[in-house]
UniProtKB/TrEMBL annotation:
Pfam families tied to this protein: Oxidored_q3
Localization per record: Cell membrane
Membrane-spanning parts: 6-21, 28-45, 51-73, 94-118, 138-160
Record protein name field: NADH-quinone oxidoreductase subunit J
Catalysed reactions, as listed in the record: a quinone + NADH + 5 H(+)(in) = a quinol + NAD(+) + 4 H(+)(out)
A molecular-function term among this protein's GO annotations: oxidoreductase activity
Region annotation (Disordered) ranges: 243-272
Basic and acidic residues bias locations: 247-256, 263-272
Entry similarity comment: Belongs to the complex I subunit 6 family.
Keyword Cell membrane tagged: yes
Keywords tagged on the record: Cell membrane, Membrane, NAD, Oxidoreductase, Quinone, Transmembrane, Transmembrane helix
Length: 272
């Protein structure tokens, strides 16, 4: 009981944080706190198999996959707060209150003295006892749940599948399209500049500097721009100063101006 009263407030606070946080990454981290606390509660109730499954499968695999995807992909825009279904918030509030009432009633029916662990059920071991229940008493519910999960996975694949309406574009077609864009709109033919080009930092939040010293906006991910984590112009002032010293007026670096010390252009027969 001591472990429950220590973990329960932390789990409830983390669950409330999931509802009120605005960043998806923070919500995923708070969900990890809830899952880890649930795993510890399984261990306190003498259920080592569920403890291991909760840590390895849910927290260690599925949730971390969600977290890595959120960190790599990011969120370009904030979530819309416009209701697409009339009365959506009212229905969600009513269903949430009903679910909370069911939980309160269920917990109220359990007395403090009845929570003594699973010593009797685990007399022959936790894993054998769990397998005996799953494949004997609850075999129909177990198989029905398996069929439901498989059906949900197939349904998600069908819904996510998109038919190809146009022929697949090859490398030759892409090159031709780039040439047309260059002729019609003056779009640059080459790839986008990578972060840190002509700069002293190669971090992803450092925009590339053009030969004139200005920052290339296309060199930084739109996600970082939306988050406001791109280095500002004052932070690039030192880079612009150094770049201006290194590049001359005609675009060539110092020492490559093609003139001698007295300012006269070198002739082919002159020696350095």
């Amino acid at each position: 009981m001591i472990g429950f009263w220590l973990l329960a407030p932390v789990m409830v606070a983390a669950a409330l944080g999931i509802l009120f946080t605005r960043k998806a990454v923070h919500a995923a981290l708070l969900l990890a706190v809830v899952m880890i606390g649930l795993a510890v509660m399984y261990a306190l109730q003498d259920a080592p198999f569920l403890f291991a499954v909760q840590i390895i499968v849910y927290t260690g695999a599925i949730l971390m996959l969600f977290l890595f995807v959120l960190m790599l992909v990011g969120v370009d825009a904030s979530d819309s707060v416009v209701e697409t279904i009339k009365g959506q918030r009212l229905m969600a509030t009513v269903v949430g209150l009903l679910f909370g009432a069911v939980l309160v009633v269920g917990v109220a029916q359990v007395t403090v003295g009845a929570v003594t662990g699973l010593d009797e059920a685990n007399a022959e071991g936790n894993v054998p006892a769990l397998a005996q229940l799953l494949f004997s008493t609850y075999v129909f519910a177990f198989e029905a749940t398996s069929a439901l999960l498989i059906t949900a996975a197939i349904g998600a694949m069908v819904l996510a599948h998109r038919e190809r309406l146009t022929p697949k574009v090859g490398q030759a077609e892409r090159a031709a399209q780039r040439m047309r864009d260059y002729v019609d709109h003056g779009k640059h033919l080459g790839p986008l500049p990578s972060p840190g080009v002509y700069a002293r930092h190669n971090a992803v939040d450092t925009p590339a500097l053009l030969p004139d010293g200005s920052a290339a906006e296309t060199s930084v991910s739109r996600t970082l721009t939306a988050r406001g984590t791109v280095r500002s112009a004052p932070a690039l002032a030192d880079d612009v100063t150094v770049l201006s010293r290194q590049i001359g007026h005609d675009g060539r670096r110092d020492g490559e101006s093609g003139t001698t010390g007295n300012g006269r252009d070198r002739e082919p027969g002159d020696q350095a």
